[in-house]
Amino acid sequence: MRVLVVVPTYDERDNLLPIAARLHAAVPEAHLLVVDDGSPDGTGEVADGLAAREPWAHVLHRTEKAGLGAAYVAGFAWAREHDYDVVVEMDADGSHAPEELPRLLDALAGADVVLGSRWVPGGRVQNWPRWREALSRGGNAWTRTALGLPLADATGGFRAYRRHVLDALPLDDVHSQGYCFQVDLVWQAWRAGHRVVEVPITFVERVRGESKMSRAIVVEALWRVTWWGVTSRRSRDRLPTGAGRP
Ligand SMILES: Nc1nc2c(ncn2[C@@H]2O[C@H](COP(=O)(O)OP(=O)(O)O)[C@@H](O)[C@H]2O)c(=O)[nH]1
Ligand SMILES: [Mg+2]
What is the domain partition of the chain in residue ranges? Predict the structure, then answer.
């Protein structure tokens, strides 16, 4: 099983090498793809240095900050071109512990998509302010209500997909830019009939660098999820496997 861990970066210079080292120690056979959006702090050059030293590390440079969604779509296309079997999403800031990745990969034995979940029993968050936890719990509650998606944590960004799931999704047609990209993808995968499983994780808030979460990202997520809910209300039931988006 060839595994590619896609890590989007924007101004993560001090975080990238530690997380890459932890990943390689935890899952030595996995490859890393850093998708950097021209970070002003030089993260792209740090990634180039890593890729020059390590055969398991790769870099995709993009010219401007275009959001998490676009970075992942580019990373997934690269995974497809290079024929990986499993594609993992993971943040660069240490919030997602690579030491927990083997558990996610193990769960793929009985699933097509495995979500690292903060809000199932056994999952938790360390060092988040109360407003951030309320936003995540509230966002997930709204996602369940609006979309009928039976998941505790559809907004998280630590997850593993079997490649065939991504191959079947119309990635060129994904317009979600910010963090609602996560909801978009898992909702489409679930509707297409793929098996989605949640595995508890401990999410640790970053200690270095700054969060890119913004009001614009929250607003985009709210209107998109609401819009998807309204436009799909009459066809909420899951589609047979392989069917496209509504
Ligand atoms: N390439 C790219 N990466 C991004 C962008 N926005 C956020 N990221 C990365 O996505 C991951 C999660 O972002 P973060 O700011 O930690 O969000 P938070 O954990 O929700 O506060 C980090 O690795 C960021 O560097 C973007 O526009 N482009
Ligand atoms: Mg973070």
Answer: 3-234
Please write the tens of the pLDDT for every residue from 47-59. 999 999 999 999 9
Query: CATH fold of 3-234, please?
Result: Spore Coat Polysaccharide Biosynthesis Protein SpsA; Chain A (3.90.550)
Beta-strand runs (E) in the chain: 3-9, 31-36, 57-61, 86-89, 113-117, 124-126, 159-162, 196-200, 202-204
Positions of the chain with pLDDT lower than 70, given as ranges: 233-246
Which pLDDT score is estimated for 244?
44
CA 35 to ligand 1: nearest atom:
1
For ligand 1, pick from 5, 6, 10, 131 the residue to mutate: most ligand atoms within 8 Å of CB. Answer: 10
pLDDT digits (tens, 9 = 90+) for 170-196: 998 898 988 899 999 999 999 999 999
How many Å lie between the centroid of ligand 1 and the Cα of residue 84?
23
pTM: 0.95
